[in-house]
Amino acid sequence: QVQLVESGGGLVQAGGSLRLSCAASGFAFSSSGMSWYRQAPGKERELVAVINTFGHSTYYADSVKGRFTISRDNAKNTMYLQMNSLKPEDTAVYYCSGGNSWGQGTQVTVSS
Question: Looking at residues 38-53, what average pLDDT do you find?
Fold first, then answer.
């Protein structure tokens, strides 16, 4: 059974940082590309970042480029999203995706 569990969300002031984690199980994590998405209230879910199987290739949405860093530790079956210089518009539920599945999401709230 595929399971993705996000953690690390919370409330932070603008300019602050958070590190999200996504613990994966039930599928071949090290052989799977992984992604982070987010969904703000009243908006569609949007792609934030993607990382390939060994972490050598990444993609970022223009809105987060230069501020967010996606990474993975295949030995721990875990993916991360380091979020720096957070802005109020980054407020959303953040989801990890991989293994044809989704996590339950973790709330990130950035106050101005």
Answer: 97
